[in-house]
Amino acid sequence: MEFKEKLISSHLAFEEDLDLFDTVHETRANALKIFEKKGFPSKRDEAWKYTSLDSLINQDYSLFPKSEISIELKEVKKYFLYDTDTYKIIFIDGVYSPFLSNTTHDGLDVCLMSAALSKPKYRKIIDNYFNKILPNEDSLTALNTSYAKEGAFINIPKNTIAEKPVEIIHFSSGKEESLWLQPRNLIVLDRNSQVQIIERHQSLKTHPVVTNSVTEIYLHNDAFLDYYKLQNDLTSASLIDNTFIQQEKNSHASVHTFSLGGKLIRNNLKFFHRGENILSTLKGVTILEGKQHVDHSTLVHHSKPNCESHQDYKGIFSERSEGVFNGQILVDKIAQKTNAFQQNNNILLDDKATINSKPQLEIFADDVKCSHGCTIGQMDEEALFYLRTRGIPKKEAKALMTYAFANNVLESVKLPSLKKRINGQIANKLGVNLGFEL
Amino acid sequence: MAYTEEELKKELETKEYEYGFVTDIESETFPTGLNEKIIRDISEKKGEPEWMTNWRLEAYSNFMEMEEPDWANVKYKKPNLQEISYYSAPKKKPKYESLEEVDPELLKTFDKLGISLEEQKKLAGVAVDIVMDSVSVATTFKETLAEKGIIFCSISEAIQKHPELVKKYIGTVIPPKDNYYAALNSAVFTDGSFCYIPKGVKCPMELSTYFRINQAGTGQFERTLVIADKSSYVSYLEGCTAPSRDENQLHAAVVELIALDDSEIKYSTVQNWYPGDKKGKGGVFNFVTKRGICHTRAKISWTQVETGSAVTWKYPSCILKGDNSIGEFYSIAVTNNFQQADTGTKMIHIGKNTRSTIISKGISAGKSQNSYRGLVQVASRAKNTRNFSQCDSLLMGNNCGAHTFPYIEAKNNTAQIEHEATTSKIGEDQIFYCNQRGIDTEKAIALIVNGFSKEVLNKLPMEFAVEAQKLLEISLEGSVG
Question: How far does A288 lie from chain B, in Å, by closest CA?
Answer without folding.
Answer: 14
